[in-house]
Amino acid sequence: MNILHVTDFHIAEKDAIGEHLREGHYQEYVKHLKERMEQAFPRTVDSIVATGDFVDRGAVSNFPHAKKVLLCLGQSFGVAPKNIVVCLGNHDRELKFDIGGDEKRARRGFRSFAKDFANADATFVAGNGRAQLIYVAESYWALVVDSTMHYAARDRPGELEHKEVDEIMSSLLLPRVRPSDVLVVVSHFPVVVDPSNPVPTEERNWRKRHVWEAGIPLYNRISEFRNGTKTLWLSGDIHINSFQPDKDWYFVTTGRFGVKIDKKRGATAARREARVISLDETGKVDLLRARYEPRGSSDTPHVGESHWEWSIEDVPSSSSGAQEHMDGVAVVTSPKLSQGRFTLSTELEEMIRQALSSEEIYRLVRVQIRPDKSALSWISINRLINYPTLMERFLDDARKWIKERILGSRAFTARDGLMVGLDAWGAAFAGTLSVETGIPCRCVGARSGGREYSIAEQISAELVSEVQGKRFCIIIVDVVSTAETVDDFYRSIEARLGPIVCKNTQFFLMSIISDRANPLRKEIRYIEEQVSACDEVPCLVVENCRLPDAAILPAVSRGE
Q1: Mean of per-residue pLDDT scores for the chain
Q2: Which of 102, 160, 221, 274 is the most exposed place for a label (fewest CB within 10 A)?
Q3: What is the CATH T-level fold of the domain 341-546, as seen in this structure?
Q4: Residue 340, Cβ neighbours under 10 Å: how many?
Q5: CA–CA dist 122, 332 (Å, integer)
């Protein structure tokens, strides 16, 4: 199975001289792409997958031209329209209607465009068009998911409710797709992008704007269903290429195929791209990548001196942190995926950022936090929660999240669960939220292995038995940096219950502050979802062996 993957046409003005896919140029552009592939690596393409942003900034009048470009691609590579799969990108909707709550009207232009391709045969549809299951060819299915629907903010991917995941699994995949079939999941926003990639760090809140972390629960459910069968997830949006293996998955993001070049956007080092992904019957994958190379330093589509160049990509192993080159930069790919992560609200997150920058709340100082580690930064939670209205806003947003994400979407009752507050602030938050939600609460002293706390605050047989009898457990803590405190608590429970019994309880994690990119962070894959008020605050943690003597860099106590 050979799949040509293209994405992000971004057709803004179909006659503009700076458009790679303009009216008088797109046929030559596509023809050269095919010719160069035949010369370098001849192979038959069975299907084309195009992952959104066909038009730019909601310019739906350009969909007829985008259709011509995509049909031209199909004709050049010998792929019939019925074997071309498309998905919606955030630029393909009319945002004013989405903001007004009319999601169907916002997507009317795209859905009309999609009827000319394989999507027209998607007889299996979940919800309000949220997902489509398409039988593309023999034993080859495409699951197309709209990653822009239910968006939380103007420039963010959408939310994915658990009841929608249930419907996708029970109504679409389980009744029709055999575990041995080829399955390609298609979404505009990628679910995983390596945080070590230096390109995204130039944009504030890059991950929140471009990574569809709400799709991770869908990935987890499909993984269980596929049970070891190789599966592809194709995406776009980020305008750079990435290939990331994770166990039996291949996550592929390809660079943009179009985008207008003008004085405002200027030249860019991120070239136009296309990819061919080859998946054989054993599950082995091979990659071909085409890049539209300029002869000089600038990408000048109006001059006609650029050319396509195809190359074979190395496929990193999923068993360890492999490296690939992303636009000339070596990037370490992650061998594991994290569970779903959320922030309570963008308004609360911005409030915390303002507090950290305007008050003496975040300090650079050495504090020993474990026998073998010290923090070089310290956040005064006491001062933070006394920032005007912050505590009230956190508790209000936390209560809403619990009621919507746990008690609402999963159909749990308050008595099905348990809140566990770790240490002083975790206990304070858990106690208040317990009163407001009706979920029973326990407080656990985690610092110093619980030795600094009373017997009632230690991990007792009574607490372990209580966890065993619950369907869910919400762990609440003030700061998550390396997540070792959380991991210690879970492992203590697991050691007494056993891993199989422990898995009968769904664990959730809530905090005010989290450092998602901390290199020393523990893998806490047993956490179903984790949520924080602000999850991109650097918590600098260093092993003590890498620090100078205390006489040179003295440590202060936690309370100072």
Answers
A1: 83
A2: 102
A3: Rossmann fold (3.40.50)
A4: 22
A5: 37
